Amino acid sequence: MAAPSAALTLQPSELRPHCLARDRLQVWRPLKPRSMRDPDGREVGNITEHDIERILLATVSSYGSGTRESYGAGLLAFHVCCDAREVVEEQRAPASHSTILTFIANCCGVYSGATVRNYVAGVHAWHTIHGQRWEIDADELTALLRGAERLAPPASKRPKRLPVLTSFLTAAKAQLDLNEPLDAAVWACLTTVFFAAARLGEFTQQNLNSFQPSHHVKPSDVRHDEDRHGYKVTVIHLPTTKVAPLEGEDVYWAAQPGMPFDPGETLASHMRVNQPDRGGHLFAWKHRQGPRALTKSKSALLKRMDTIAALLGEAPMKGHGLRIGATLEYLLRGVPFDVVKSIGRWSGESFKLYLRKHAVILAPYLQSSAVLDNITRYTMSPLRQ
Fold it and tell me: In whole angstroms, what is the distance from residue 312 CA to residue 158 CA?
């Protein structure tokens, strides 16, 4: 059987009309629609087609745009696989146990383990959205996904992202002209993302025409707060995030007075130079054709930083490196592990990856007499394996 791939031709079907990847979860339909009957097969009240469509729309909306797009790629791969194996529509949704396992097995050795896992999640989401049963043996699924990780081709594995260090930020500032609109916006965005331990994509937009006030961060989303001791923080509300697509999340940082990369100073400089509209994008900068937001796609920000990295003889900066670097910096400052997890909004154990890579983080705790003050010793939660 041919490996499932978007390069293969998907057989035409009225159930799967041509559409954007992010729309496939909603637009591509299973042969049997959502059942509106109770377990005994009786119709439930006077539920209309309009009600069913509202259920569909509400369920789809629970997934972020980026997630829908990546899941849509997985759904395409699944149906290409089914076409090649001549799986009939009745066995695609709800997918039989054998169909899903065959799909995963034929992805092994072709895609990375993370991609295979994401593809299966996409097929699962499609079932959920359209009210189809998902009855796959959890143990077999786990074993196959683990096998997919081990059989992943070397070329599918990304090189490990390097942390952006404060030494790089210090050197980079010397290459920027903060009176220039682009440089002012880039520098403010970088320092904000770094000290908030945030994702770069949360402070940029997909492309120049994709701004939505309900989705993107704006000057009106920035506020200042302080605790009872007078310690001041800047709080920025992200209207929507991957974890909280509907209510969004708050991120925050404190000023770093005296440092060359003080986020308070850089944000104030950006606001003075670019004067972004209160209801527009927070990091919009003055372009000759009008205000222009920093974007994730073909990013002016990353291009500018690539130029600076080349001048400094450094490797190109990766967006996620800011979050890794922030985590490392806070830990090296002695901030307790659980506090750093809270700053970076980690809920799972992926946070431990940052500890394994940098023995220097644990150095104070490994000495014959641990170099810890009483507060740190009290507040640091024990590491769990």
Answer: 24
